[in-house]
## 1
Amino acid sequence: MQPIESRVHVNGVDLCLFEWPGEGRPILLVHATGFHARCWDQVAANLPGRHVYAVDMRGHGRSSRPAPPYPWHAFGEDVAALVRALHFTDTLAVGHSMGGHSITLAASIEPAAFGALLLVDPVIMSAEGYARNSSRDQDHFSSRRRNEWASADEMFERFKDRPPFSGWDPAVLHDYCDFGVVPSPTGQGYELACPPAIEAAVYAGSAGDNIYGAIATIDIPVRILRARTRQEGEGAMDMSASPTAPDLASHFRHAEDFVLPQYSHFIPMEGPAFVAEHIRELADR
C-alpha cells in the first residue's frame, strides 16, 4: 500500500511525512544521514495493520533544504516538534544511524510523547569521542558524490553490484533510488534529493552534539541493535562495523543491547523484516 504524503511545518522548515494508516500506537521511523523516509517502505510492508509514519528530515527527501550548517540537535528538535504538532502519545520511535541520535534527543525534549525507542545502530559515540571530535572537516567524502542521474533506474544499475549496496535487499535499494532523486532544476534528468553539499554538512554537524545529558533523563524502554564492533585500525567510515558506543545501553535507565555480527551498519536495508520483527515485539509490550 502506498503511504499518504503530507507536510508538517516545524521550526521554520516543511517536513514531508508519509503515513501508512492502521491500528495501535503510532510508530515513527526516522532515517539516516543522506537517506530518506521511503527507505523504510519494506519495513512498513512487514508491519501490516500498524499505524506507521516515516519522515524526511530537513535537507533530505521532499523536505525543506535550508542552507548549512546542519547541527544534529536541530534534527532532534524537529522530531520533538513533529510529534508535538501531531499530538502523538506513547510513540514507538525507530531511528537508524543519525535518526537514532535524533529520536533520543526528541524523547528527552518531549517525554510524554514517547513510549519506547528502537535505536538501530545509532551514531552516538562515547562521551570521550565527542570531546576528541569537537570539530570535523567539512570536506567529507560525501561532498564528492555523483549528483546528476539520467534516471532512478540508472542509479540502481550502478549501485546494485557495489558494496555496501550489493548487500541490501534489492527492494530497499529500488526504494532508495526511486525516491532518492528529484527532477533536476535544469529540466534534464535528476539530482539527489539530499545534495552532496548538504549530506557533507550533516556529517560535519555531528561531532559537537554530545547528548549524554539527554540520555540520562530518558525513562522509557530502549532497545539498541548494533552491527559488529569496529576493530582497532578500521576507519570511522568503515560501514561494515558499528559507529555506536559499545557501552551505550549502560547510560540509559532501561535499555537492552543486541549485537548483530551478521549485519553491517545498514541493518534496515539488509534485513527489513528483521527490524520489523523487533518493532512488532516492542509495539505489543
## 2
Amino acid sequence: MAQEETFGSGHYGQRKRPLSMKKLLVAFVLSLLVVHCGQAGHRISRQDKSGEQDYLIGPEDVLEIQVWKNADLSRVVNVRPDGKCSLPLIGDVQAAGLSTVQLTEQITEKLLAYYQERPQVVIIVQQVNSNVFYILGEVRNPGRYIMKGGATILQGITLAGGFTDFASRNKISLIRRENGSNNKESRIKVSYKDIVSGKQDNILLNPGDTIIVP
C-alpha cells in the first residue's frame, strides 16, 4: 500500500497525498547508508582488535606468562638471543617470530601433558626490546632507540636529536643484517640531500639496523 503524507493547516479538512517516487528513493538510499556505516564500524573494530595480536615477539623482549591458578608456572621471562624462553615443566619454547596468540597456543598445547583440562594461559608483552635500531656518529644523541611503529631513516635521525654541525649529511651509511643473520650485513649509502629532494627513497628501518653519520 502506498505511503502517504498529510498537508494543510488545522485538524479538520486535512488531505493526504501519496509520497513522490523521488522522496521514496531518497529514504531508501539513506537507509542503505545507515546499514553500511554500521557494518563498516564493526569491521574497523575487528581490525583494530586483531591488530593488537599481530605483534611478532623478538629476541630480548620481556614476556609475562600467566597460567591460571598456578603461581609456580606463572612468571616473567626474557626471550633469549636464540629466540627461545624457558618455562618450568615444558623447558625451552620458541618465542621469536610468533605472535602472542601463537605462543599462547604453543605453551597451552605443551602444558596439556600435565593437565586433565585445558589450562588457561595469558601472555603480556611487558617490554619491547627487539624492535630497535642504533644510530652512531655525528648526531646529537647517538644510541639505541625503540621503534614504536614503522620509522624511516629521517625519523630515526630526528629521534636522535638531528645532525651536529660537523655531520657529513650526504655520506650516511645504513648497516643492515641480511635476512635476520647476525653474521652477514649489507651497507647502504644514504644522502640526506637526495632523500629530501626525492632522488632517493626515505628507507624504512628494520629492527637491528644501524645508522652511521660520519
## 3
Amino acid sequence: MAIINPHARTPKIGSLLKAVSKYFESKASSLAATQNEAGAELKRRLRRLENDCNRLIKINNLLLDSQAAELSFDESSDSLFFTYKGESVSMKLKLADPSVPISIPGSAFTSGYPAGASKNEKDESDTEELKMVMEQLLEHYYSNAFRITKLVQQTTNQRKYHCMPITMVRNKLVEHPNSGSLYSFGYGSNGPLVKPMHHGTNEWTDAGLVPNTIELITSLNGVFENGT
C-alpha cells in the first residue's frame, strides 16, 4: 500500500539567478546604461520571485494538510483508498490496458474554492487567513513574473520574448478575465492556481504555479546561458 503525497515541490531558481548574474557581469561594458539598469531590476525581481515562490508553495502545502485527508493506492488490487477523519472509502480502478500498470499523477490532487463568496463559517480562521495571503501573493507573483519577461526584452536581443503560461495567467486570469471566470483560487500538487472555476469555456486554464514557474525558469535559462 503506497501513501500518495500530494504536496507540491518548490521549483529551483538558484541556477537561473547565477546564470543571469554571470550574463550581466560579462556584458556590462557592452550594454547601454538603460540596459544595465534594467538588468539590476531583473535580478532583484528574480530574487523576489524566488522568495514569493517559496512562500506560496509552503502555504499551498499547509492548505493541503488542513484537509486532513489521506490518499493511498494498492497496486495489488488497483484500488484507491481515501481516508478522511477516520472514515475510509475505496474505489477499484479499471485498467484500460491490463499490461500497463496504473500510476497516479500528482496533478490529480487539486482543490478550488470561490474567493468571492461569503466566508464559510465552518472554515477555520487560520485556514481562511492562509487563503487570503495566498490570493494576494499569487496575483502579485504573476505581475512580477510578467514584468520579468518584459525586462528580458529590454536587456537582451530577445525582442519578442515571452513565456506563454506567465503571460496568459497574468493577462487572461489576473488582469483581464472574461465574464466566465469566477473569482476563485485553488491549491494542489501543481501549486496554487488562479481562477480554476469558471462558467463554460475559459480563455486559459492555469496549470499551476509549479509547471508555470518551471517553464519560465527553463525559458530564461535558454536565454541567459546561451549569452544572447
## 4
Amino acid sequence: MRSKKRKNYLLVIGLIAIFISLIYLVGNGERKDSKECRTDSDCVPAGCCHPTSCVSKEQAPNCTGIYCTQVCSGPLDCGLGHCGCISNKCEVLIDLE
C-alpha cells in the first residue's frame, strides 16, 4: 500500500516539474520574440565609432572613454541619417533634407 502512495506522489511531482518547465520555455520564447522598439527614440547607433547599424537602447554599447577618428564613413557618422524604428526593428534612416 505504501509503495502505491509513493508512486502516486512521485508521479504528481514529475507532472508538476514538467508543467513548470513548459511555463519557463514558453516564457523565454516570448522574450526572444519581443519587439526591439516601438518608437525612433528606442533606437541608438550600434557602435561607438563609425556605426553602420542601430540597436535598441538596452543593447547600446558603452562608449565611455572611447575616442574615434574624425573620418566620416557613413550616414550615421556623417550626420546624414539617424536610428529609427521600422516594423519594430531598429534601422538606419537616411535624412533626405
